[in-house]
Specification:
mainly alpha, single chain, about 425 residues
């Protein structure tokens, strides 16, 4: 007798290998499963519509994407880069340090690693390689590594999606990501310092002290965006979704009225690009909602939970297994797919073992983000080979020191949950 679930999994793999987007493949395979199992195939549409229209939180995703697009089309990003250069550009390897610092600051605005790499990443690549100051492969590797910080420091699209599948508080998840994101940034800055000394990277001409107040003043409206966004959430004035809408409006108003760098044509391009990205993510979410229904029918989360509990794992051992699993999957799968398909299977086990879901969420998101630069198939590696016009082999060689530093940071985040939960507890989290 044919096992409907085995056919479903096989169909997803075959369709994905044939080039069909994974979201479409999951929907098609799930409908086939319902047919083979003798269930109402209309249930697929019901699950999709119920999931999409009852999840108010999902509206935050296109709004964060739009705010990042508007920032890139205006001069907000350029002013932020000027501010970062004034802060750390004067040290050896200063432009490389600027790359890290701008990612930390820009992380408080975009919520997307790909947006960081495709936005400020292009600018940093040109600045670092201009005049042969840095090897193109090193600049591309550093930009890929720093982009990983974006979805860890709030706001974060992966964290929003994790909140969707786990019912954990977005506000506390955002708070929990701050210190781990800063730790990742410090680890990368340490690698830059070491590499700059080893390879005698150039020292940039320092920005005169008299110019720093003016540079800072011009950057303040852009620097205020994370304050507006996160202040609204943590003060209780807005929900995360409402804060995302305010962030997009703020980015547009600052770019259009204060900086005067946004035209009707660039606004249209920003809206069009945001719509395309949102549609791509939306299809993944739609496919995951339908496929998760199949997983629920098959009782896979409970079966896996009982199996792992039967192994008498400690919470730490479980987290270490999850780290290895997600790092391996991150080499092969896109992060949104992992969050929407794999994590719902693991969350019941985490709860049963007493793992805090806010800590678990940050550990998972950090793993998935590191997967973006993990050879051989990290998505950011392919993006930066295109932007930097370098070979994948050269890029991988340069990215490995940053990868090792981030794995060390991941170990600390996994082993010390109090470090991750410090800020949420300051704001009243009881976990």
């Amino acid at each position: 007798m044919i096992d409907p679930f085995a056919v479903c999994i096989g169909t997803i793999l075959v369709l994905a290998l044939l080039g069909l987007p994974i979201g479409h493949a999951m929907i098609a395979a799930s409908i086939l499963y319902l047919y083979l199992a003798g269930l109402d195939m209309g249930t697929a549409a019901e699950q999709l519509l119920n999931g999409m229209y009852s999840s108010y939180i999902l509206l935050a995703v296109p709004l964060f994407i739009l705010s990042a697009e508007i920032m890139n089309s205006g001069s907000m990003t350029t002013r932020l880069l000027g501010f970062c250069n004034a802060l750390v550009g004067r040290f050896r390897g200063g432009l490389a340090q600027v790359n890290v610092v701008q990612s930390i600051i820009f992380a408080g605005m975009s919520g997307s690693a790909i947006a960081d790499a495709a936005g400020t990443g292009k600018m940093m690549q040109k600045m670092m390689t201009d005049g042969g100051r840095y090897p193109a492969s090193f600049a591309a590797a550093l930009t890929a590594a720093t982009a990983v910080i974006g979805p860890i420091i709030p706001p974060s699209i992966p964290v929003v999606l994790y909140a969707l599948v786990s019912d954990a508080s977005i506000g506390y998840l955002f708070l929990a990501g701050m210190l781990p994101g800063l730790l990742m940034g410090l680890a990368q800055m340490g690698i830059v310092v070491w590499t700059a000394r080893q390879r005698d990277f150039p020292v940039e001409a320092p920005v005169p002290l008299r110019q720093i107040p003016g540079i800072t003043l011009r950057a303040i409206p852009a620097l205020m965006m994370p304050v507006v966004l996160l202040g609204g959430i943590y003060s209780g004035i807005t929900t995360p979704t409402e804060a995302a809408a305010i962030a997009a409006a703020y980015a547009f108003l600052i770019s259009a009225l204060l900086y005067r760098t946004v035209s009707l044509a660039s606004t249209y391009r920003s809206l069009l690009s945001s719509a395309r990205t949102t549609a791509s993510i939306g299809m993944l979410i739609a496919g995951a909602l339908v496929f998760n229904y199949v997983i629920t029918i098959e009782n896979i989360p409970r079966t896996l939970s009982l199996f792992l509990q039967g192994m008498d794992l400690s919470p730490l051992m479980f987290l270490l297994i999850v780290n290895v699993l997600l790092l391996a999957l991150g080499c092969l799968l896109e992060g949104t797919t992992i969050i929407l398909i794999v994590l719902p299977v693991l969350i019941p086990t985490a709860e049963a073992l007493g793992v805090d879901l806010v800590h678990f969420g940050i550990v998972c998101v950090v793993n998935i983000m590191i997967g973006l630069i993990t050879p051989p198939y990290g998505l950011l590696l392919f993006i930066m080979t295109n932007i930097g016009q370098v070979s994948l082999r050269a890029l991988v060689g340069e990215v490995l020191p940053f990868l090792y530093a981030m794995l060390a940071a991941l170990a600390a985040i996994t082993l010390f949950p109090d470090f991750v939960l410090f800020l949420p507890r300051l704001f009243g989290y009881q976990g």
